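=== Per-residue structure ===
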Amino acid sequence: MKRTLYTEDHEAFRATVRTFLEKEVLPHYDRWEKDGIVSRDVWRAAGRQGLLGLAVDEEYGGGGNRDFRYGAVLAEEFTRAGAPGLAIGLHNDIIGPYLTSLATEEQKRRWLPGFCSGEIITAVAMTEPGAGSDLQGVRTTAEDHGDHWILNGSKTFISNGILADLVIVVARTTPEGGAHGLSLLVVERGMDGFERGRNLDKIGQKSQDTAELFFRDVRVPKENLLGELNGAFVHLMTNLAQERLAIAVAGIAGAEHLLEITTRYVKEREAFGRPLARLQHVRFEIAEMATECAVTRAFVDRCIEEHADPEGLGLDPVHASMAKWWATELQKRVADRCLQLHGGYGYMSEFPVARAFTDGRIQTIYGGTTEIMKEIIGRSLLG
């Protein structure tokens, strides 16, 4: 079925993204996977191409376009290319809204030009060794010392943790109030006491640097408070719907791409003297995955449309949770079934299905686990 979500402008942008991937990303990607990190040069190349800060106002060097569909195009194309290591979606769709909606004018002028040019790479540090989805478990503290905060604590599983020049840290700024006693503090590269641990060895997305971060008596100027004091919980909840929708977009795009390459494979691969595609079981597998992808695509596209509506309020948290858990669980199932249809070749790292199997496994975990998504939906329906 023809998709009606995108205009000619979106498709022209898609062509730009594909050209960028072909020239600046794919030729280097295997090396980045071995290195466990992408080069800073590719971030600057993305800035020159206008792929960073799409929603940032033009006066700060951004694209000045808040149409989420452009971000969706980026997510789709990077997923299809099998290149999640360059975390542009994290930079644009997850961290960008904190800076554009919460930063003061002085902060915007200080950070956003570099954010858009690729000179400033960003991260958000929420997860701790003992606290993931439950914000009440955050133990990182920031003590008020007049004109600055003294930050102490640690974070883990931080995407862009090694490369990041600017880290939005969730810290407890009052000993009381549970999750409501948290604030967002911006820690910048070079601050005394800010240290990075090892680049964590993951089973997938190896070129996407993921690190432990440590804060030992870091002096954070009061000018680096982002948003309201003790207002982090509300700020985080406000932006979670877009984060989860972006993950859902990548989820269905990943499932569709796996279906495409597997359909080609079973037509070409022979067993017992005939193509795999002529076996009824294989046809049923392809038929089931194609149907599930088509149904999921219809729902996710509707969510994108809702979120991109300039007259609306954006996608609500419940439907974002529905899209996130359904699309990512579908991606996981399709990856497993497509690998099985590839047989032994599917287990070989050089085959795209193998890398997609490991790269996509995190999708049901980060941004809120499937279990958390179901809890949000269930509470909305049952109280």
Observations:
- The chain has a mean pLDDT of 96.
- The longest helix spans residues 232-268.
- The chain is about 50% helix and 15% strand.
